[in-house]
Amino acid sequence: MRSTTPTPSDPADAVREIDAGTPPQRYARGWHCLGLARDFADGRPHQVSAFGTQLVVFCGENGQINVLDAFCRHMGGNLARGTVKGDTIACPFHDWRWRGDGKCVGIPYARRVPPVAKTRAWTTAVVSGQLFVWHDPQNRKPPEEQAIPEIPTHGDPGWTDWVWNSIDVEGAHCREIVDNVVDMAHFFYVHYGMPTFFRNVFEGHTATQVMRSLPRADATGVSMNRTNYSTESSSDASYYGPSYMIDKLWTAGTDPEGPPNVYLVNCHYPISPTSFRLQYGVIAAKPQGMPDEQAQQVAEAIAKGVAIGFEQDVEIWKHKSRIDNPLLSEEDGPVYQLRRWYEQFYVDVEDIEPEMVDRFEFEIDTERALTNWQAEVDENLAAGRTAFDTAR
Question: b/e for 247-270, b at 16 or more Cβ within 10 A?
């Protein structure tokens, strides 16, 4: 039977179709943050759903945090339902004792431990108070040059402790959040900022976004600077690998030539091909003379403002289509180049191509966007509306 769908005679009349593609079943190679180390150091086992499987995280009497596959190789018991005994995790089914290196070192009712009694132990690192695991489908050791950098002010008495949050995102691949690295325009609509400068640099295993922005005067209560809407803030954010970003922030009034006064961590790990856990944390410099408790409240207020934007991101991801062929304007940034960079973490090391890791730079002209956005803000203020009233 012949198709009755009309064929446009003018190419300009052709409809752009969405290529949704399919999310990769493979999980990215690289370091992934599971959360704050202190939350796993309580002497109890913790179950973590990640990389399409179940993990058990536990801290033994020696203070070492370990990550193993959760299911006991004996009869499949869930080690996360077991008990930490000494420096081992004991299975609740038959009390087999598993050490942090994956070896079974004790079976109370047996004369000996089978020589092959070993489970998968995950390579871990604790950096800036956060617990990381290394994931690699090829089972290679992590390269030294890809080590997660320390945040220099973590633990400094002049800085607050972490304010940490997490959100489970269902129905989306974690590529959605990585796309934000180049998405200048969404900072106005979702994060209530007005970028005045926006530049990307991709090189090796890092992807960087440098931004200066003004707060939206019609979005009170979100900005870290709530009074002076003509003073810029600055952000220098870099992904180190596929899933962990450190964002150095200079809030309005902070000398951009000096050190940042806020560090924001934005990270995630995959749960399945279509779900992931988004985590974000804030530490801030304590204002001189401010009591520690009050300074911690300042960090909590900053984190609350960040949460508003992230929660709106999540709502968008939950209801949008996956799209492999986004239709872009000139001001949308290097989405395809970023995705090519991101692809390096989903192929074997031998298949990484130069264009995935070679240095690439791109700067967006924000002038037209700022003119139109300022007009929208002015209109909202004149009408007594806020950005939240007009948000979709």
Answer: bbbbbbebeeeeebbbbbbbbbbb
E-assigned strand segments in the chain: 30-36, 46-50, 53-59, 65-69, 83-85, 88-90, 97-99, 104-106, 124-127, 130-135, 163-170, 193-203, 206-215, 233-240, 244-250, 262-272, 275-284, 360-364
pLDDT single digits (tens) 209-246: 999 999 999 987 665 444 456 789 999 999 999 999 99
Contacts of 262 (CB under 8 A, 6+ apart): 224, 248, 249, 250, 251, 282, 283, 284, 285, 302
Instruction: State residue 1's pLDDT score.
Output: 45
Task: Name the DSSP class of 54.
Answer: E
Whole-angstrom Cα distance, residue 304 to residue 325? 34
Q: How far is CA 209 from CA 56, 72, 181, 245, in A?
A: 34, 43, 6, 10
Instruction: For 56-85, write each residue's pLDDT tens digit.
Output: 999 999 999 999 999 999 999 999 999 999
Return the HEC string of 302-333: HHHHHHHHHHHHHHHHHHCCCCCCCCCCHHHC
Percentage of the chain exceeding pLDDT 90: 88
Closest CA to 80 of 119, 108, 107: 119
Whether the pLDDT of residue 392 is over 80: the answer is no
Q: Rounded to the nearest 5°, which phi and psi values hold at 28?
A: -65, 140
CA gyration radius, the chain: 24
Place of tokens 């202190």: 38
pTM: 0.93
